[in-house]
Structure formats: structure tokens, C-alpha cells
Queue: 2 jobs
Job 1
Amino acid sequence: MMTVRPDIAAPDAPTTVENADITVVGGAGHVGIPLVLALAEAGMRVNINDLNQANLDTLQAGRLPFIEDGAERALAKALGAKRLVFTNSPDRVSTPGPVIITIGTPIDEFLNPVRRVVQACVDALLPRLADGQLVVLRSTVFPGTTDWLAAYLETQGRKMKVAFCPERVVQGFGLKELRAMPQIVSGCTPEAERGAIDLFERITPEVVVVSPLEAEFAKLFSNAYRYIEFAATNEFYLVAKAAGVDYQRVLTAMKHNYPRLKSMPRPGFAAGPCLVKDTMQLSAFARNQFGLGHAALLINEGLVLHVIDDLKRRFDLAKTTVGLLGMAFKAESDDTRASLSYKFKNVLTSQARAVLTTDPFVTTDPQLLPLAEVIERSDLLILCAPHAAYRTADFKGKPVVDVWGELQGANIIR
């Protein structure tokens, strides 16, 4: 059970840049918000520093910019206790306590990591950072980035305690998992390591201490392994389909009371902002000798094209209006980043008579239509994101492609 440390008293005045205990850079994003709320819940005064003013305004108004289970209540408590301050500029970070950076290493159009993004963020923060301050990298970074950052700061004449403590929670359940799961921590020096341990012991039940490079690999290996798992089951699906076999029946038989396959995922459109990116970062580090990762990319990204090719054999797509059900990258989410639903849309737009899209959660796409209208106007439907709401929808007897095995009915195409 988490308790508030006695040295962190409840503030009797609003949290400010000057009195905040900690700053979370990128704190209004998917990685930052659960962490901010966990820190506030532990009694800390948090500076939420983010360039996204719209997200800051939404949080300050007591609302969430995206779905996060249990976060609304935690946000209300943090606001009520005056534990949050909202800032939108690098020169507004707080110097009394640690600075956690939730900006990771993106990949470019060639699937290669772009480390300069982290450097640009740190360069912007440097004028406000104090020597001796703990700087924690939180999001996925290319292997070696933490040690590189510590060396880079030394070249700038700065003496910081640099740590890497990777975020490993499931998106949408971050606050819940932070309270329950171990936290991997690492530091470039014993002082940085100790500071990271002290920080995360306040909000997590257990810490696991490794070196920075080990922590970086732990994060990348976790996401790449999950992506490879999806690729394995998707490949099995394609093999079974080519043989005229219902893979869902095979999968159910395999997993029934068989503990060694308990965690085997069902087939589906594996995507999102982390799995592909982290798998490709690992491949780049291995000088493109990561065969499993490349195979997983071909299978998971290619599943969309396999489905479309199969439909072309069954339907005259040029005369078919196709409805896409679910544009988020996964079920019960409003996040469309790297969603394969949009790959479906892009490819089908040039082949089908029309493509209609719908999603009960996504609010950022003005082209989305109500579910009833998409069903009514479509000749063919594809279940892209298996939101629970689709299980009970009336599809008016129209054919529905369901790779996930989510739906039941006579006109379901597996």
C-alpha cells in the first residue's frame, strides 16, 4: 500500500514553478499523465510541462485529453489538493527536484532512430536545469542514449544525475499498473541510481535495478517480443486460412486448459505507437540483423494487404462501398497513432467505390460517421478495431470481415 512520505506535506498554497517537487516534461501526454497523477497521489507537487497547450487546458479544467482508466478521479483529487502547476515552455521547468523527460526516440521514414529529438529537448531545458539535479529519461530510447546523454552534459560543463526508468504500462491502464507493477530503474552513477530508486519507491511497489543499457534493452525487448507474438499468431491465421480451416477453432482448441499457451494472442491488426517503432529501433541497433523483427513487420503490416487481396477475389471492389469499424489502434481506445485501420483506408480508397469509417471513441477524425450510417451505406464491413460495442451491433445481414474472431453470425468472414 502506498503512503505519503512524511517529508512531503500537503501544500497549503497552490503549487508553483518555484515550489514544485518535480517536473514531468511532456507531462500532458499518454506517458506523462499517469505518471503525473501517481506522483501527485503520493503527495508530490508536480509541474506538468508540455508544449501542447490544448492538453494542458483540458487537464486544468479537470478533464482528460484521452482515455485513461481511473484517471479522472485522480485528476480531480490532485487539482483539489493544489498539487499541479501547468507550464508550456522549457524555461518553466522547476529546479528544486527531479526532471522526468517523457520524450523518447522516434524513427524516421526509413525506420531509423532519430536521437537528435532527445538532444533538442535537453538543450532547450539546460538553461533552467541545476547542477546535481536528477534527470530521468522515461520513454523508449535507442540503446546507449542514457550514457550518451550523461557524456553530452559533461561536454557542456554540466554535472547532472542521469537515469533511465522505462515506462512499461499498457496504454489506457497506466495509473493502475504503476501502482501494481515493478519499476525498472537505472542510473549512470551511483548517485543517479539512488535518486531514481528513491523517486520510484514512492509510487511503485518494487524497483528492479539494472544498468542503463540493460534497462534500455529491457524496454525494447518487451515491445519487440509482444510484436513478434502477434506476428506468430497472424502467420498461423494465414496458414490456416489458406488451408480452408477456421483458425479461431484451432486456437480455442490449442489454448483450452493448456497453460503453456495461455498467453498466446488471437490474430489481429497489431499496431500502435510503440510496437513497430521499438522493434525497428532494435533492428537498427543490430545493424538490420534482427531477422525475427523484420519478419514480424512483414507479417503484421502485410496482414492488411492479405485481407484486401482475399476480398478482391470475393467482391468487385470497384462497385463496393466498404465500411471500416474502429479507427483506433486497439480496442476500447481513442488513440489512432500508427493504426492499421488507416492503412486499410488508404489502400481501399483507390480500389473500392467508397470507404466509410466509424469509431465510438475517436474524436480527432472529422471524417468519421455514426455506426448506423456506415452500416446502412456499406456493402461490406471490416472489423478493424474490436471495440466491445460491435459485438451487439446489428449489421443488417451484411458481410463482415472479422480476423479477430470477435463476432458471431452467418455472414461473418474469417
Job 2
Amino acid sequence: MDPLPSNRPLRPAPVALDEHARDNLRFIRETMERASSFTAVPGWGGVAMGITALGAAAVASRQADSVSWFITWLAEAAVAFGIASFTTLSKARRANVPILAGPGRKFALSFAPPVFVAALLTVILFRAGLIWAIPGVWLLLYGTAVITGGAFSIRVVPLMGLCFMVLGTVALFSPASWGSILLAAGFGGLHIIFGAVIARNYGG
């Protein structure tokens, strides 16, 4: 004889304790990563810097002497700095992310030293007449700055820095005539590619 059916509702299968713990740990880890990361790296700002770098490369390639070539790229560096500063501040304000505290301060303090070294070496190389070495130094040390600063930012930023360092290494061992091409590939192409990725996935 079949047993009488039970009127009690079926209980859902209990969630395994280890699975619940993994979910909690994942949530905690992701929350801590967001809290400890500087997320105001400007994606569209990077795209804009890339576009101006491509324009600078086109202008620099038409210069008759190395000093004019150097001045063209110095002007581009000033324009890029202005774009980066404005777009970073704008994104930080929209996202309510502090610039001079927490991850923002760590990012800035880690990013600044390699850039300062690059500026010093630029002066030394220019005075020594070794302008051909400047593209490699710029790419290498900018990449170093992006990697060290990116340790306190979103994960794609250190990868971008590594790509800059690879290009910088190539530039140091390439003919001087490749300078503008490699600078365009780095400050132009890499900024556009990674800037678009950041803009799409990390809020502009």
C-alpha cells in the first residue's frame, strides 16, 4: 500500500556551507579591491591623448632638424598633461573619488617618481646631443610610471604600462628614424586602445 502524500511543502536543497563561504569571500575581496583602487583613470582622456600624439607624430616627422622634432614632442607632452589632468579631475568628481587621499594619493606618489626621472634624463640627453635615445627613455619610464601607479588602480592599467615598456625597449635598440613611429605607436596607439577599454568598462 502506497504511503499517504505529505502536505508539507518540499524544502529547497540546503546551500553547501563551503559554497556560501566562497560567495562571501568573493564579495569581501571585490569590495576591498574597489575600496583600495584608484578608479578615476580617464578612458576618454586617454583616447584624446592618443589622438593628439598621432597628430604630433605627423608634425614631428616633417621637421627638418632634431631640435624642432624635440620641441614638437615637448609641446605634445604639455598638451597631454593638460588633457590627463582635466579628465582625471572630472572623472574623479563624477565618481566622488578623492584625488589626494587614499588610493588616489598612492597612485600619484607611485606615478610621479619615474616621470620626474624621465624629465631629468631628457635634459641630460638633449644637452649631450643624444636626442635619438629620448623616445626609448620616454616610453620606458612612462610605462614604469603607469605600472607603479597602476598597482593602486584597475587591473588593465599595469598591462598598459608593460606594453609601453616593451615599446621603449624596442626604441632603444632601433634606428633613430623610428623614433616618431614608436612614439606614435605608444603615446598614440596604446593610449587609444587602452583608453577605449577603460572608457567602456570603467565608467568613461
